[in-house]
């Protein structure tokens, strides 16, 4: 379901519960006045639970977002180190740098489809097949280069493994989203809280306006959680700057090399 639609439903549900509370206040004022203290205690309990769990959800979602950014930067660093090793043997590795560039293109298209005009797809382990094949081929060809040092071979193997392992970790993390049932429970508390707020309301237009603003605030919290746990789509995205710079550098060097060969 679209994130904006889900957030809109949360706002509508919270506001509707507040209006239901206002209706009960107007219909049963005697019962409300007799149970006022108990209702206040319950609303305080629910409000505390909601604030704690919501804060933890937003904090963990933001941590997940930052972890994705760190993983992606580390993966770009591994690719840059692979490129540096290839440049140590420019003649023998001339066919390998285009393979590395194609791998970078696939990564950018996979997580930022707008860069290659691709359709947004759910990322899964199937997408790693081409990247793994490219890394295996680069390693095997690199090892066969004459006079390549053992340290360079080990470094190439290390950075290639790191590139694949980090991307595997990213895909695994993307598959571990916040459980929908947990969000339903937490924002169900919000609806109940607004219902209790409505019971103590006076039904004035001024009060209803602020209840509406509160419902929007609740929906915005849901929006933050959903956006931060989907870091490669939506409004909040991790930056692709590290790979963009590496891609641009490799392309520029290849253009210079072609001009020199003319």
From TrEMBL:
Annotated transmembrane regions: 39-58, 181-200, 206-226
PROSITE patterns in UniProt: PROKAR_LIPOPROTEIN
Pfam families in UniProt: Bestrophin-like
Keywords, alphabetical: Membrane, Signal, Transmembrane, Transmembrane helix
Coiled-coil annotated residue ranges, if any: none
Keyword Membrane: yes
InterPro entries: DUF4239
Domain of life: Bacteria
Annotated signal sequence range: 1-20
Name of protein: Uncharacterized protein DUF4239
Top-level taxonomy: Bacteria, Pseudomonadati, Pseudomonadota, Betaproteobacteria, Neisseriales
């Amino acid at each position: 379901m679209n994130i904006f639609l889900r957030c809109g439903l949360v706002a509508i549900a919270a506001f509707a519960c507040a209006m239901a509370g206002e209706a009960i206040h107007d219909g049963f004022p005697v019962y409300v006045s007799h149970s006022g203290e108990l209702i206040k205690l319950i609303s305080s309990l629910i409000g505390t639970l909601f604030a704690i769990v919501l804060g933890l959800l937003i904090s963990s979602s933001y941590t997940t977002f930052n972890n994705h950014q760190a993983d992606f930067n580390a993966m770009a660093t591994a690719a840059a180190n692979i490129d540096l090793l290839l440049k140590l043997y420019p003649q023998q590795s001339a066919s390998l740098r285009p393979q590395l560039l194609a791998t970078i293109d696939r990564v950018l298209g996979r997580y930022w489809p707008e860069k290659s005009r691709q359709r947004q797809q759910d990322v899964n382990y199937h997408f790693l097949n081409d990247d793994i094949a490219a890394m295996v081929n680069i390693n095997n060809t690199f090892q066969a280069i004459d006079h390549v040092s053992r340290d360079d071979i080990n470094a190439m193997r290390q950075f290639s493994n790191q590139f694949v392992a980090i991307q595997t970790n990213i895909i695994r993390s993307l598959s571990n989203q916040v459980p929908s049932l947990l969000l339903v429970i937490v924002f169900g508390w919000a609806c109940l809280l607004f219902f209790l707020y409505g019971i103590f309301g006076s039904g004035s237009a001024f009060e209803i306006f602020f209840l509406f603003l509160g419902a929007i605030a609740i929906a915005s919290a849901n929006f933050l959680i959903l956006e931060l746990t989907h870091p490669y789509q939506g409004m909040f995205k991790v930056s692709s700057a590290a790979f963009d710079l590496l891609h641009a550098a490799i392309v520029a060097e290849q253009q210079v090399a072609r001009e020199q060969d003319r």
